[in-house]
Design brief:
Blueprint lengths: L7 E6 L3 H12 L6 E6 L2 H10 L1 E5 L4 E4 L5 E3 L10 E4 L6 H11 L5 E4 L6 H8 L3 E6 L4 E5 L2 E4 L5 E4 L6 H9 L4 E4 L3 H11 L1 H8 L3 H5 L2 H21 L14 H5 L3 H11 L9 H7 L10 H10 L5 H16 L15
Parallel strand pairs: 1-2, 1-6, 2-5, 3-10, 6-7, 7-8, 11-12
Antiparallel strand pairs: 3-4, 8-11, 9-10
Helix pairs in contact: 3-4, 7-12, 7-14, 9-13, 13-14
């Protein structure tokens, strides 16, 4: 894709928790001769990183810091002009706006990689852009701890749909940064597998407690079992078979969620590696008073349920609760599990 003598120019557009973590890992493990990376994001993160540098840690013990003067972070879009690769990390509701920016600024040979939640972003981008668009999926959770510190609390390989090998150079940089990549010819099943996993984002955000604590509470898991059962029913009606994105088979997840604590803990010990500090990105959105991606997660299940005349009352109630929190802008409501079920 590129001449080996020239550094790969990568722009992270919408650099939040995922974008800063992935980009930070890449920066730490590369030289200016192999990678020139620019973050485009919010002024809040630009300020933090300019003051503290960029630190990436993970549940396995990764602890890497890039000095502030070695981080290119901008709130403007000029870096897109000569980008070879654009890692798109904006929220799903901002995809079309990001596409307009890319269309205006990026060269036609740039490769746009969607590292977003949801299942329809790559398709939406392809409708708007002449550039090559690659569907991607990030399975792990990243939480911003403040002061330029991004912490990865769960495991998994980045997934890319790259049947034409357009991402060879990027994959080399990612794997050198200890960010393993799995390449697929078709990402549909993988994206819906991630959607299944992401349905817990809202439950975690509404609970207001860390992921490990929330999943360790059987009452919350029983809510999740209902959420997942509705989702699997509508996906089955659509003829979609969600692929496993970690070690758990999606169709078994409702059963696993219903297990008594001692059995669940035995299963989780071998299949669900979660840092005690990990929280969902939707929790962070509520804390910061931002719009969430609820319409593209649980809302997607509600939409597919309506299409197939399948009731999804639990997912619909959770969507309503999250929207109420967005309007209130008071952070997580810290709801008990029984409040997540419709009366």
């Amino acid at each position: 894709m590129l001449e080996s003598k020239r550094a790969l120019k990568v722009v992270v557009l919408g650099a939040g928790s995922i974008g800063c973590y992935v980009g930070g890992c890449m920066l730490f493990s590369s030289s200016e001769h192999t990678l020139q990376l620019t973050f485009i994001g919010r002024a809040r993160l630009q300020h933090d990183i300019s003051e503290q540098g960029l630190m990436v840690t993970d549940w396995r013990g990764r602890a890497q810091t890039i000095r502030a003067d070695n981080v290119r972070f901008s709130t403007q879009n000029m870096a897109l002009d000569d980008a070879d690769v654009i890692l798109l990390c904006v929220k799903s509701q901002d995809t079309e706006q990001a596409a307009d920016i890319i269309k205006l600024r990026a060269k036609s040979s740039a490769v746009v990689i969607s590292l977003q939640n949801g299942v329809s972003n790559a398709h939406a981008l392809r409708k708007h852009l002449k550039q090559t668009v690659i569907a991607g999926m990030v399975p792990f959770n990243v939480f911003y701890k403040g002061h330029g510190h991004f912490h990865c609390g769960t495991e998994g390989n980045i997934a890319l749909e790259d049947p034409d090998n357009r991402c060879v150079d990027l994959i080399e940089v990612l794997e050198n940064a200890s960010l393993p990549v799995t390449v697929y010819n078709d990402m549909t099943g993988v994206q819906y597998g991630k959607l299944i996993m992401n349905l817990n984002n809202a439950v975690n955000a509404l609970s207001g407690i860390p992921l490990k604590s929330q999943l360790g509470d059987r009452e919350y898991r029983l809510v999740m079992a209902k959420v997942l059962s509705e989702a699997l029913a509508v996906l089955n009606a659509e003829g979609i078979s969600p692929a496993k994105t970690g070690k758990v088979i999606p169709k078994l997840m409702p059963t696993i969620m219903k297990l008594p604590n001692f059995l669940f803990n035995m299963v989780a010990a071998s299949t669900l590696k979660i840092d005690p500090e990990a929280r969902s990105s939707m929790y962070e959105d509520l804390v910061l008073g931002r719009r969430t991606e609820i319409d593209y997660l649980n809302g997607e299940i509600v939409k597919l349920g309506e299409k197939n005349n399948i009731a999804t009352p639990i997912n619909a109630h959770i969507v309503q609760l999250v929207k109420q929190c967005e309007q209130a802008q008071k952070g997580s409501p810290q709801l008990p599990a029984n409040a997540l079920l419709p009366i």
